[in-house]
Amino acid sequence: MLLVKKAHERTAQIMTTRIEQDPLGELEVPNHALFGVQTQRAIENFPISGLRPHPAFVWATVLIKKAAAVTHKMTGRLDENLADAIVSAADEVLVGEHADQFVVDVFQAGAGTSHNMNANEVLANRANEILGHARGTYDPIHPNDHVNMAQSTNDLIPTAIALAALRLLPDLDTSLDTLGTSLETKAAEWDHIVKSGRTHLQDATPIRLGQEFGGYAAAIRRNSTAIQTAAIPVGELSIGGTAVGTGLNAEPGYRTHIIDVLADLTGFQIQAPEDYFYSMQSMGRFSQLSSALRTLAIDLNRIANDFRLLGSGPRTGLSELRMPPVQPGSSIMPGKVNPVMAECLNMISFQVFGNDETIASAATAGQLELNVMMPIIAHNLCQSIEILTTGSSAFAQKGVDGLEIDDEMIKFWLERNTMLATALAPTIGYAAAAEIAKTAVATGETVPTVARRLTELSEDELVEALDPAPMTEPGVRAGSGGGG
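Given the sequence above, the corresponding structure tokens read:
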């Protein structure tokens, strides 16, 4: 009965509303809400996608509010008790409380004013409660006058995008290191395995499976480095530019102090921008980072496609790789196992491609002193980092670590590779070697069999020249002269 009574009380609280007022007039706000009238207007105006702000973006926004309150307390602009209450409210959010109060749709008013006011209202109401006052009164702490002091949406949002990205990137770096290590482990394990190379999806000269996987690992390592490089300019924060970059309504020293406070709170390599006007006009640094993420996705997509191709079969494809059987692959075909981790990585890559295109388009939409498309940049950039992080880790653990090879199929394809004839070209010439390859295709014979019939090379010379293992390293394998 007690639980039922509490449930009814909670329902009644949710059903009741309070009246709040903003410059547009009065509006009912749910009594249970920590947010206020401007957030409620955004809820009603933008019932678009149901997508709420990324947790890292909320964290970054609230962290800036905390840093601002600390700075204003330091400079004496904000009363100590008010500043401490704002900091306490912010700390609750930063440890995961009140997450359900950040409710403005990703697709919202330009620049992110609604998101900013959502944060201002939540912190103001909670801070007032901490001081013993009712939510919705905004006394003694007001969302605009105190929580948003010396800030504008225009400098806060790009700063929040930057901090959110910088918070998410270390996990991506860790995931890429895990994936790179997994690929390197397979490269070392399989370095002795000689297989058929393929270019244009046609036979090519032999390659070691370890070399193939070493190339995959190198791609991951290079992309990780490129992303770290692209993140450097993201650390130039716009905060302190206020509305248009001039710093209007920010007290002297605010710019320097808030950067120092944020650096202390985060440990990030951050700094003031060389030019505040540039940092608020241009979203180029976020586009640059997104581009690096896209390049990573391009390589991940390519690697996933190779896994799917090399693992095709098991009886009617190449079947050189055996993908880990992590789940049944068909609702109708018994025993079917699909390369689901590679397929998942493909889909993640496609999403990142689309996110990058959106970010690039949004970045070009800036006009004069402001880019109003920042909310969608924030959402897409955070999502790209997050899904690349989780996708890379999952692919390493369930797509690479359990990967096996089919030795018999690798030997089967290698023996039938017509491009083994390439090793004979330095001795018998390109045209004669091409004739051997052509004949092997036409008759279905192997290259060594045809070469024995069409050349005067001894058996020892043929065995030495057509040994596929030495073909995987630089050098001329038979005789001298001729062309390749």
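The chain has three domains: 15-149, 155-241+277-406, 416-472. Try to locate this feature in the token string yourself.
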